[in-house]
Amino acid sequence: MADLGENREISYPDISIKAKAQDYIGLDMKKLNDEKKIFLESVAPQWTNTGKEREKSY
Questions:
Q1: 4 vs 8, 9, 57, CA distance in Å?
Q2: What CA–CA distance (Å, rounded) separates 58 from 47?
Q3: Distance (Å, rounded) from C-alpha 21 to C-alpha 46?
Q4: Through-space distance between the first and last CA atoms of the chain, rounded to whole angstroms
Q5: Cβ contact 19:13 at 8 Å
Q6: pLDDT digits (tens, 9 = 90+) for 12-49
Q7: Domain boundary assignment for the chain
Q8: Predicted local confidence at residue 22, as pLDDT
Q9: Residue 30 dihedral angles phi and psi, to the nearest 5°
Q10: Cα(21)–Cα(5) distance, rounded to whole angstroms?
Q11: How many Cβ atoms are within 10 Å of 58's Cβ, its own excluded?
């Protein structure tokens, strides 16, 4: 950019920690964590049981 004559300082958001970066891009972490909790309590156990049933035939 400097070759084209653009020498201004460019300001960047503070994304020095994960939480600040998530906030900057608009992630609703509370909502995502709530959805993850529901997933882990309902879907993940079903997958585990399906896998156990499948492995019985091995």
A1: 12, 14, 67
A2: 17
A3: 33
A4: 61
A5: no
A6: 999 999 999 999 999 999 999 999 999 999 999 999 99
A7: 28-58
A8: 97
A9: -60, -45
A10: 30
A11: 4
Q: Are 22 and 13 in contact (CB under 8 A)?
A: no
HSE (side-chain half, CA atoms, 13 Å) at 1: 5
Cα 45–chain centre separation: 21
Instruction: Please state the length of the chain.
Output: 58
pTM of full prediction above 0.85: no
| Long-range pairs for 2-6: beta carbons < 8 A, 24 or more residues apart | none
Residues 6+ apart with CB under 8 A from 22: 29
Q: Provide the token pair at 7.
A: 């020498």
Give the tokens for residue 56: 């019985």
Q: CA-to-CA distance for 23 and 31, rounded, in angstroms?
A: 13
